[in-house]
Specification:
It is a single chain. The chain has seven helices and no strands. It has about 160 residues and is mainly α. It has two domains: about 30 residues; about 110 residues. The N and C termini lie far apart (about 45 Å).
Length: about 160
């Protein structure tokens, strides 16, 4: 199966190169042309991290949680379990409001419980699958750092109240 996929990817890359494209297609299924997180999500994550006084390390973790959980509106950061569970983090399902509410719940948990050890934090954030969760999130933190040259995207915004459009 891997050989067929690799052959198909190589053929697609050759076709793209022959047509004048500057980069090969991205097989990872990531948003924004192969980026793990779109710029708009980074802006919202950076604002929440600033409001919650998260360190750079904790901000990388917040971004990795977003990418790992990758939930639909109402579950962007996986906070509160299944939808309609009555958790207050599910009060919006419209995209922007929902994203901020979920991010703020995740940031609050990070601020209270993250001490630099993703495995220990995983036991708090996702107890049923802590090992697999922390392994995946650790990997995503590394991928996000490499993708962004070890510098958080954009400038750190000042603290400000978050308004929902």
């Amino acid at each position: 199966m891997k050989i067929l996929f690799s052959a198909a990817l190589a053929a697609a890359a050759s076709a793209a190169f022959a047509s004048g494209a500057t980069s090969a297609p991205d097989p990872s299924g990531t948003p924004s042309g192969g980026r793990l997180l779109p710029a708009r999500e980074w802006q919202m994550i950076r604002q929440v991290a600033a409001n919650y006084d998260l360190s750079d390390d904790a901000t990388w973790l917040l971004a990795a949680i977003r990418r790992h959980e990758n939930g639909r509106p109402g579950l962007e950061f996986g906070v509160g379990g299944p939808m309609n569970s009555g958790h207050p983090a599910h009060r919006y399902q419209d995209g922007t409001k929902s994203f901020y509410i979920q991010a703020m719940w995740a940031a609050g948990t990070i601020r209270r419980h993250y001490r630099g050890d993703i495995a220990a934090f995983g036991r708090r954030y996702n107890p049923p699958a802590a090992k697999a969760w922390s392994d995946r999130v650790s990997s995503l933190v590394g991928r996000l750092k490499v993708e962004n040259a070890y510098k958080l995207p954009g400038a750190r915004p000042p603290k400000r109240p978050i308004s929902y459009p």
